[in-house]
């Protein structure tokens, strides 16, 4: 998991010291900066996006809620405050947690864990969205094909043929290039001339790979180990 980047903002220096002390005891977090002056924090955060902001609410010149609303992006936020009357507003702003001072390490760590879990979930969803389709040029036209519709890819010299239930696409590319480009999407090489989506494979034997739609494709001897790891 990537490190959770954090900025702390509180007009009381002891609170900043506490944030620093607690963060130093938690794995996979990076405390990027601490600010006692909210305007300075706003200027910094506007130019330097981070994953999570830990904010006091009642601060001079600009309070924590206004600071959050004035950012050009929406980071995760934990309010760390003595005020209890802003809990409903915090809920409306989708903050990840609301901590009331004084805060012990267990409560702080729980809030950070929630931020980590949310960020991991969000990243996985964004990755899933990116992986729902692939784009390629065929017959001088850019095509966008749902990933689940790719039955297999067959190598034909300087070209590859991408097979879907509706159409076959001739693409000027090599199998090795396609394999490298889309390996992270679940494609697997089963033969020097065939690549399939691992999710479409139901079984295999000494000579063939069997797909969900009933088709079977030749299995190359040198590619069996990849299938073993898949199953």
UniProtKB/TrEMBL annotation:
It comes from the Bacteria. The modification 4-aspartylphosphate is found at residue 56. This is LytTR family two component transcriptional regulator. GO terms for molecular function: DNA binding; phosphorelay response regulator activity. InterPro entries: CheY-like_superfamily (IPR011006), LytR-like (IPR046947), LytTR_DNA-bd_dom (IPR007492), Sig_transdc_resp-reg_receiver (IPR001789). Gene3D superfamilies: 3.40.50.2300, LytTr DNA-binding domain (2.40.50.1020). Residues 5-116 form the Response regulatory domain. Residues 144-231 form the HTH LytTR-type domain.
